[in-house]
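Technical note accompanying the year-one report. For the benefit of new consortium partners, we illustrate the data format agreed upon in the data management plan: each record pairs a sequence with a structure-token string. No post-processing was applied to the example shown here.
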Amino acid sequence: MRRLALALGVVVLIPLDGCASTTTPAVEPTDAGTTDAGPAVILDPGLFDCTSLARPRLPRRAASTPECLRDPACKTRLVCGHRGAGGDLGRIAPEDSLAAYRAAIAMGADLVETDPRPTKDGVIVNIHDDTLDRTTTGTGKVSETSFADIRKLSLKADKFAGDFSCEKVPTLEELLETSKDRALVLIDANKTNRVEDLVRAVQKTDTLLWAVFDTDDTSKIDRALALEPRLMIQPRVKDAAGATAVLAKYKDHLPVFVEVSQTTFPAGVPEIHAGGSRVLTNAFGVDLAIRTGGKPPLYLDFFDKGADAIQCDLPEVALEAIGRKP
């Protein structure tokens, strides 16, 4: 079965299980998918899979400084791992798993993105879809399933090299603890109205210096800041008018990033920079292009057009593009 997608203005067809490549123990960011021998090895799984838990915790590997991550004036080019080490097009670890966040850290990603949503009994877990079907061995809605029952499930990991048998759907707190002192976490608040629980998770894990409240709903940002005035924020906008509005609204609490929709980027870039903040946008179209034979420099177009950070499913390739090969 194949999926039709648009990448950089070109219609491409990509197999749902990725493109074929040759299995190799070396880091080869432009090769993707699986072979008859099994999943391709992109990054040594021993750095982040279940076997890594028996070894000392990896230190932070990103080339950017922690101070730069928090400073809207810092212009270092930054890479964010979507759903950890990649979502639909990722090829390193199961999306939204703790292994995916350990993998992003191992490759030197600056930021990672999360997908928190509540279970039936109100536990905030990290899973993108509102159902369990696609990424776990379970079925049904997350919101209608208890945390205990969700934890009994395994994550689907057949297409990835490595041992992920220990991986379960993680809580937001576990994810924050995993990333603390190693990668800045974008907490996507669009999938739940439980703002208080998201803020409480940051406070409980002592990750105010490592967590960013991320949403296109400024009323949620306002609620979050009322609970924790020190919280870093990332509003999302679609155009220059939206960028101007959020920067005026939060002029006394400058966003560390403003996310510009990938469908309208680079709209709003001059306004965001003039307002003293940075631009983050998604590069999923380039992810598709890379999976069908494109080269790492394709990511550079976003930076050339004013992005300060890009979020993608192939962070290992984007890092190579900016001269930071994993």
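Partners are asked to follow this layout when depositing records. Residues 51 and 100 are 14 Å apart (CA to CA).
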